[in-house]
Amino acid sequence: MEKISRRNFLGMSVKATAATFVAGTFAPASNSFFGLAGIAEAATKKISPFTFAVITDAHLHDIKDHKFDRILERAVDDINKMNPAPDFVLYGGDLGQLAKPGELDKGKPILTRLKVPYRIIPGEHDWYLDLGKGWKDRFGTDHWSFDHKGVHFIGMNSILVDDYWTGRSLTPDERMGWCAELESHRCGAWGVGSEQLDWLEKDVAKLSPDTPVFIMTHSPLWDYYPRWNFQTRDAPEIRQILSKFDKVIAIHGHVHQVVYNSMGNMTSAGLLSTSWPWPYPNVQMPYPSIRMNRADPADIYDGLGGHKVTLAGDMGLGGTLNYQVWSDLLPANVQAGIKL
Ligand SMILES: [Fe+2]
Ligand SMILES: [Fe+2]
Q1: The whole model's pTM is what?
Q2: How high is the pLDDT of residue 312?
Q3: Separation of 328 CA from ligand 2 center, angstroms?
Q4: Ligand 1 centre and the CA of 322: distance in Å?
Q5: pLDDT tens-digit readout, 109-156
Q6: What percent of the chain has pLDDT over 70?
Q7: Which of the residues 28, 171, 216, 278 has the least number of beta carbons within 10 Å of its own beta carbon?
Q8: Contacts of 323 by beta carbon, 8 Å cutoff, 6+ apart
């Protein structure tokens, strides 16, 4: 594996600064969940212009006509109204709440209503009832990659933990419950594991360093707040494998909030959920101004949202991320968009 060198790091800083950040062509309608989708555009000599949408963390409950159903349905409907249509949709995990068949069986038909293909990764709320069997039966592999118009897209399952259930004789429901806690110390620190690390190394082995790379995981690829599993324990290994690239953009679910970080050649941004906003953990942020205001607890739509990403690849992959919400949740500097 290659290591991040000071030379590479400085080189990326210059490239990121020099990258052209262009305004997005999509203007979300007021109060529309369409605007809560992530949209990426790329317009360079290397990368043909395109858009895609992102939704995540629906946390569907096995309860008839639950409010989270309506929010996800609205998100899907609004994406279907996008003009031009996105090339595809990414979903960032936690489709269900307790990985129950009724939750996943409710979520899949909603996602299937998307008029464009979608790719999906699991979250912990999809997984620990049956260790991913039900999720895999419905959605297939939990890690994947594909190339689209010059960009290499990667999705990985970042919520794998060591066995905490067998020695304690936990039932499947107890196992799921332990990992569904925000204070997730009982299930332990999660990550992608050695099998996916080997896969990732092979996956990117033949790619040239100037290939734009976009990676989605459920949890952040940096230590944000480990006691809530706002981390991926083998993120350093992932970043090292990807360190050969000029620029990597990472997005993640799980945190349900605006958050940003930059480490070496990787910029990282958290996604807003379609369910509820988490409070900010009490940590010193490297970029403390890139966060959202406290959501109004009396407004079930406040604090929910997504983002618009604008990519430009003439100097290596760069871009801006615009979070968009239904309310005045964002401070002005975040409304204006943040550099990726
Ligand atoms: Fe979540
Ligand atoms: Fe999660």
Answers
A1: 0.85
A2: 62
A3: 25
A4: 20
A5: 999 999 999 999 999 999 999 999 999 999 999 999 999 888 899 999
A6: 79
A7: 171
A8: 258, 272, 292, 305, 306, 307, 330, 334, 335
- Sheet strands side by side (includes 151-155): 144-148, 151-155, 213-217, 248-252, 266-270, 260-263
Structure tokens that stand for 226 in this block: 């480990």
Task: Tell me how far the alpha carbon of residue 12 lies from the centroid of ligand 1, in angstroms.
Answer: 32
Distance in angstroms (rounded) separating the CA atoms of residues 283 and 89: 32
Cis bond leading into 84, ω under 30°?
A: yes
Ligand 1 centroid–CA 97 distance in Å is: 8
> What would the pLDDT profile of 144-193 be if each residue is shown by its tens digit?
999 988 889 999 999 999 999 999 999 999 999 999 999 988 999 999 99
Closest ligand to the CA of 273: 1
Does residue 29 register a pLDDT over 50?
Answer: no
As given in the structure block, the two tokens for residue 282 are: 């009490």
Domains of the chain and any CATH numbers: 6-21+35-339 (3.60.21.10)
Separation between Cα atoms, residue 87 and residue 125, nearest integer Å: 27
Ligand 1 mean position to 273 CA, how many Å?
A: 7
